Amino acid sequence: MPSQDPPYLRIADHLRRRVADGEWAIGERLPSRAQLAVSYGVGANVLQRAQEVLIAEGLLEGRAGSGTYLREPVERRPMRRARTVDAFPASAVPNGSWDAHSEARVEPPPAVARRLGIEPGELTVHTRYEFMLEHKPVQLAESWEPMAITDGTPILLPDLGPLSGRGVVERMASIGVRVVRAEERPRPGRATPEQANLLGIGAGDPVMLVERTYLDDSGRPVETADLVIPDSRWEIIYELPVEQPE
Fold first, then answer.
1. How confident is the model at residue 93 (pLDDT cuts 50, 70, 90)?
2. Quick count: other Cβ atoms within 10 Å of Cβ 118?
3. Neighbours of 30 (CB within 10 A)
4. How far is CA 98 from CA 20, 86, 89, 172, in A?
5. What is 4-54 written as a DSSP string?
6. In this structure, are residues 89 and 130 in contact, taking their beta carbons and an 8 Å threshold?
7. What is the pTM of this model?
């Protein structure tokens, strides 16, 4: 019986088989989208959707202005998100490290101010992070902390001071702020040219965008961050506690 899948999925499956049969070598450029569309008897938009499926799987990569290439296989590492694990891979995998740059007295975007529960114009400490594995960037993060909480303390700048690199929970605990909860809102996205350049991936490649906010024991947000996680490199696993019946 003929397949009931949409045309783009049937084409994606056929392209996947052609790759498995060795029709193209690693790093080789595929025929143009227009050529493939003609060969399959479909429009360019259908062929594009088929290629996007394989790009999301990490089988192909699109290069702006150049075409679509057979990507070198990359091992996807598990990234576990749990209450007991810091939110960044530098502390969750062996040989992880990070680089950061902080700036104080930064007025955050309105959406960030709302996430922090502060008034427009209130100042924050803004930090950009690059998380490294085997000397290569593997995740990006952009963080904001209200200056009203940390101003005048040794932990004002997350990348400096006695607790540099220790994480939000430990840093806040050192000034008497007890962080008890983190909220995460993940959503799929595509890498911007700037993000792609930093991560060594293609512009438009799939990424997971995670909006994370830490809250203290009064429910006050003490930090919020936007994480950019390349889908081709990480498999995100959420570990959730299960309450046993009494």
1. low
2. 20
3. 19
4. 37, 13, 9, 20
5. -S-HHHHHHHHHHHHHHTTSS-TTPBPPPHHHHHHHHTS-HHHHHHHHHHH
6. no
7. 0.72
